[in-house]
Amino acid sequence: MAITRRQKEVLDFIRGFVERCGYSPSFEEIARGLDLNSLATVHKHISNLEKKGLLSRAHNRSRSIDVLPPQNQRAPASVRWPLLGRIAAGRPVEAVENRETISLDDILGDKSVYALEVRGESMRDEHIVDGDIVLVEQTQTARQGEIVVALVDGTEATLKRYYIEGDRVRLQPSNAEMQPIYVPAANVAIQGRVLAILRKCA
């Protein structure tokens, strides 16, 4: 479906912001980034892009703009690698080659997934360390104890285990040297939950 030049600029800005920050921009940030004077103009462009199936938005929370792939855009072909067998991390086992293959699709399924590079050591006891890449399922909900990308106060995103405790949320680091973060439940928005971790070995 055709879009105007300004709508494309809005779409490109949102896509670039999400890639840089890991969460969607506010209307104010879109207005500043595109030098628009009116939030009503931003709202109009967002609504039109939503009607055209290029954005989705949850109306009950902030920073909820999700860029959708064009409906006629096919997913890229999955890359598959040979799965040659099993390797022992304890006692040695017989090395037997087989002819299976594996791809990330086997792990991620058909979920909407994005990647984030980890900064910091707050999740090191989960073996998630600085420089790792986490693959995150885009979702607004999570179960107790899941590792999530949580947006706090609409501005700061953090990777923590998620626990609801009454009317507040505990964002629990996996690092004995760090304290949990307690936040009113209304001030936390789930941006996704971690599905897998990638690490490039030196």
Could you list some keywords that capture this structure?
202 residues, Arc Repressor Mutant, subunit A, seven-stranded antiparallel β-sheet, two-stranded antiparallel ribbon, 4 helices
In words, what does this structure look like?
With 202 residues, this protein is of the alpha+beta class. It has helices at residues 5-21, 27-33, 39-51, 104-108, and strands spanning 55-57, 65-67, 80-83, 100-103, 113-117, 133-137, 147-152, 156-165, 168-172, 181-184, 188-198. The chain has two domains: 5-67, Arc Repressor Mutant, subunit A (Orthogonal Bundle); 108-198, Ribbon (Umud Fragment, subunit A), CATH 2.10.109.10. A hairpin with an 8-residue loop joins strand 9 and strand 10 (181-184).
List the helices and strands and how they pair.
Layout: H1 5-21, H2 27-33, H3 39-51, E1 55-57, E2 65-67, E3 80-83, E4 100-103, H4 104-108, E5 113-117, E6 133-137, E7 147-152, E8 156-165, E9 168-172, E10 181-184, E11 188-198
Antiparallel strand pairs: 1-2, 3-4, 5-6, 6-11, 7-8, 7-11, 8-9, 9-10
